[in-house]
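Objective 1.3, modelling of assemblies. Example input:
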Amino acid sequence: MTGLELRQRVWELLDVSEDQQSGVAEWDWVDVSLLVLILLNVLAVILETVRSLQLRFSTVFWAFEIFSVAVFSVEYAARIWSCTADPRYRQPIVGRLRYVSSFLGVVDFLAILPFYITLALPASAIDLRILRVLRLLRFARVLKLGRYSDSIGRMKRVIAARRGDLGVALALVVVMLILASSAIYIIEVESQPEVFTSIPAAMWWGISALTTVGYGDMAPVTPLGKFLGGIIQLLGIAIFALPAGIIAAGYEEEIRRGREDKGICSSCGRPFGPESEPGQCTDSQ
Amino acid sequence: MTGLELRQRVWELLDVSEDQQSGVAEWDWVDVSLLVLILLNVLAVILETVRSLQLRFSTVFWAFEIFSVAVFSVEYAARIWSCTADPRYRQPIVGRLRYVSSFLGVVDFLAILPFYITLALPASAIDLRILRVLRLLRFARVLKLGRYSDSIGRMKRVIAARRGDLGVALALVVVMLILASSAIYIIEVESQPEVFTSIPAAMWWGISALTTVGYGDMAPVTPLGKFLGGIIQLLGIAIFALPAGIIAAGYEEEIRRGREDKGICSSCGRPFGPESEPGQCTDSQ
Amino acid sequence: MTGLELRQRVWELLDVSEDQQSGVAEWDWVDVSLLVLILLNVLAVILETVRSLQLRFSTVFWAFEIFSVAVFSVEYAARIWSCTADPRYRQPIVGRLRYVSSFLGVVDFLAILPFYITLALPASAIDLRILRVLRLLRFARVLKLGRYSDSIGRMKRVIAARRGDLGVALALVVVMLILASSAIYIIEVESQPEVFTSIPAAMWWGISALTTVGYGDMAPVTPLGKFLGGIIQLLGIAIFALPAGIIAAGYEEEIRRGREDKGICSSCGRPFGPESEPGQCTDSQ
Amino acid sequence: MTGLELRQRVWELLDVSEDQQSGVAEWDWVDVSLLVLILLNVLAVILETVRSLQLRFSTVFWAFEIFSVAVFSVEYAARIWSCTADPRYRQPIVGRLRYVSSFLGVVDFLAILPFYITLALPASAIDLRILRVLRLLRFARVLKLGRYSDSIGRMKRVIAARRGDLGVALALVVVMLILASSAIYIIEVESQPEVFTSIPAAMWWGISALTTVGYGDMAPVTPLGKFLGGIIQLLGIAIFALPAGIIAAGYEEEIRRGREDKGICSSCGRPFGPESEPGQCTDSQ
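Predicted structure (tokens):
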């Protein structure tokens, strides 16, 4: 049984498991060190793009990348080998295939693949070497840890509950973007045809105006265009106000529900008495 | 009676009717294909403005436009012919006239009209050919479908309920825009008369500052102008905060009312007891 | 007594009086026409600054200004003469002085004064002629009408109730502006001394960054400056989120209080029963 | 005992003490004059950086700085001498050391230190003279007074209560910033390698896009880059909506709790009856 026990142990080491009753994450040194390694990789990928650093520390970056990919590869193999210890991936073949094709399984694979590909390529294949940025995908593992955070859970619930309203707000943005950009294009194409070359080009102005970014690389010059542009920018405010309002109401509701679950009365902020029957409220009998 | 039945059938096919009791939209293949055709037209109108695509696929765009307008024309005719099947447009002549002059009736007409006009014109009449963009008007039919969405309904109710407050916020923007632009104009016209040429011109800066877009094509340069400009930009924040707050309160209210309609107590989140009389709340008897 | 009656009548004609019991504004043709004249003056002042319009319609603008100032002057005189009909300005001399020194009294005077001054001046005195823009001050009379709007009243109450919180948010902006601008100045003055010439100059960048306007006429170039600039811009978000949140909570509270005043229970949305004693709520007896 | 009494008196003069029962700040002329002196120093530091003013009033600035630092030095010494009158710093040596190493103790020291350093230095040491800006640190004393404001207390409680949610929103910004900047870098580095030189450089664009500042000094030019950029800017809206919504809900909750503490029913807005037992709410018995 040592084989099974070892496998079980390996899986538990690799996996940030959740304590059943308390629901608290159980960290061990392996989880922590892997987490640190991932964050260091994110940092490395970012700094590696800085020419001066790249020139000075190229060997360091290279050594660190080799080390990281080696660790990730071993981890990947170990996960595939030991995943059968997880009830979800019980069966030796089917279970392992399901794990490999799971979101994190694919992510882990894509995170190490480019390195091996680029090893086989001549150094000139710049475009492919850029793929090594895919190490950033390991970032997903960090985000995955979010499931142990109350606040992230609350945010998810709020956004899920208000999904429809937020979707409508987004749809509104898209429709406004199409109409606004088309209108500005038709108005401005005459006077500055090399700037507002097409509706898709005008959309770049439209999205900048609606999100109040305003790069200034293109702007209406005709009086009518400026008038319409001003109105579009005002409408852009609605695009901020709607989601803000929707999310505010969502958090409100979430907090209120939290009180209810704790059995606290929203009217007086005191716990309900022992006589209260779970079934119904006779507030107005 | 086959004529009447046919007409009835055609109208039902063209119209996305609403199921009486459930209020759910009843789609049929005609509605769906017309919807798809409209969205494809929106896409075509947008892409057609891209020079390179226009040159390469001009025949495709042209064929698609002819096909679309043909379908829209047939649809338009069929609607006029069959609209008498709708209780709103019962009478043969008066009813049809009322339909033709209805919002969607006019939209459908304007959407196909430019094509026939431009057919009669020489290809050089660029400005008129631009009118063919009016096909975008069919977009209104898509938006019209919004009435089957809960979230859109909620948004409409919220905005309708807070109409007054939002209107005041908008009026505030206009007043601030007029005063701010006039002030900046008076301050800046001396030092950069070619930029702040007039108050309407200054308004272009004003709206950009109040909506925090800031194109950078014009900005105050005098110390006093910059000081005032900074204050105006700060006031611009209020222009975001007010609608956001108003809409947030509106959604709250809407959610709360939703609970009430379901007969759920906001204090404890449980349904009211059977003894509750609809008429009044004896909460504090 | 005809003199007194006439005076009474004139005052009522000029003043948009409020119906005692209903509190609804009582308009008469004089109020409306004066309101229209004011709005037309606002429009005229704005358009008059447009060179092309000024050249073409200078006589029209001039005639309209003479007419307007004449009317405003007569109105001003009539108000001073008849204001004693108002209980607030009962006494012939003291009352009239109090009216003349009241906010609207001063506004009306400043609105007509520049015209008479500039009449005495040579046309070359451009800077003084600009003072004629002060006709815009009459705008205050339009805003004054806001007191008849529910929504404006609600907005005032909300802002008054949240005065302190909004003030703190504003103070926070000022403190952040001073610290951020000083820091960016110290960091950037070395590398671009002609852009970040002084802390006040840096404040122009600071306010643009905090309000997310970003003109692009000045921006940090040093890595440290960009790093700090990014953080400052992130803090700028708080400057939007705080007022929005405060105002949202304020409207909430206002709506809730409105329900209470109507004696509607926030728990079930039904009016309280007849037995309810105004004094207290025995919700949890 | 005169020594002790004097020390006690000095400490009370220097310290804006809080009245025990009322909790209101007790100002005396020393506190006020020190406060004014600090604010004047902030103003001086800001204006001193303006070349023209510096040249004209250099002696005034210099005299004022000497005077201020002298006063601050005396104050600093007096505080160290008299701090033992404060129960927190009772013991002569340990207490004084604890005071010196307290936040305000360090601030006060850093605020006067640079002056003495720069006195010893040649006037050419520009970079060190800039340290004299550290007088701004005294600003902390003004902010410290915030603890006497209800609104600031409320803001602190709201932010503290929503700490987690706001932290998640901030984390979301950072993650989005890293991913967005990396993506834009990979897309744009080919077409404009001198603008998007590295991921850190792209982050300057990223933060400007996410905070909707948009300087325009760098922007995507490739169609794919503009498409992604547009989506990133839309996501930037969420970065405003989330904190605004969270803070709105936080203020709501704070206001609601305030009502409860006053024993006012949220349902009917009336105080609870005398029979109400503090322990529990029998709302739904």
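The CA atoms of residues 220 and 226 of chain B lie 5 Å apart.
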